[in-house]
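Quick illustration for those who missed Monday's session on complexes.
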Amino acid sequence: MLSDIQLVKLAKDGHLNAFESIITRYKDKVFNIAFSFTSSHSESDDVAQNVFLKVYSNLNSFEEKSAFSTWLYRITVNECYNVLNKRKSNTVSIETELAGKDNLSLKEVLADPKSDVEQNFLSAETQSIIRKALLELPEKYRMIVTLRDIEDISYEEIAQIMEISDAKVKVWLFRARSRLKSIIKI
Amino acid sequence: MKCKDFVLKLSLYVDDKLPQNERILLEDHLKSCKECLNEYFLLKNLKSSLANLPAQKAGDNFESVIMQKIGDKFQETNFIPVFFQTIKVSLLTAVFLLGVIATFNFLTPDVSAKDSYDNIDALNKYVLKDASACDKIISDLMG
Ligand SMILES: [Zn+2]
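Prediction with zinc ion bound:
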């Protein structure tokens, strides 16, 4: 299997099928980041499309100083912020796809030392509560939790993607998780 | 250290980013403090819940949508290479045709001469034909 850098080089030389392989490799990751951030399938689709169009048109400016994924996710983060700015400037608010469920307390589930969420399928209710809580976080905290806890991206890469210091990654993550806990009321 | 100080370190601890000496101190504390242990489980399970949110996927035809858009969007920028490509083909065709014409001319340098010989031949025939006709008329007249 070709590496990201090999595919990027081929794409730069005009091989469109190499670029298509890049899309296949990253489309779900990009879409999932956007969905964690927007909770909207249509907005996530817009974000993902814009990301790959921007990646294509700026491919020559990618200088391989960072990993390709870092560069791609930085564009993704910026597109997520852009879509929210558009949403804010819209007089009609765009509805997210979360049902208007009441905030049920997850305390019992999450405080249970024996609760092994990793092995468990999250109920639709639990998912809804968590996604709604994410939406209540300030943008930068929502993004950092998305990158770290949902996408499992390292602190070092997050610092590069969000263009912040390593120390800030630690502080923002602490604050984001604390806020999330208080929103979920646990 | 107070409980508050340990709680501050839990976020790094669940990510395994705490330096070893601090980790040992924290783990010792968790063994004896139920409140901090509870905070740890909350954080750990919150993190796991986030990790276990079902991943949302882009559509199956996502690639073709993008490739189509790339085709539409970058057609204009492709104009320049296409333009030069066309010029290149035109120039090559012109050079080839000139080559063919030159070669043809070079290989048949006596075409005009041959034509001339043919013409003289034809003229001769005509003159001879006329001459014989003339002789016939004279002999008839003399006849
Ligand atoms: Zn304690």
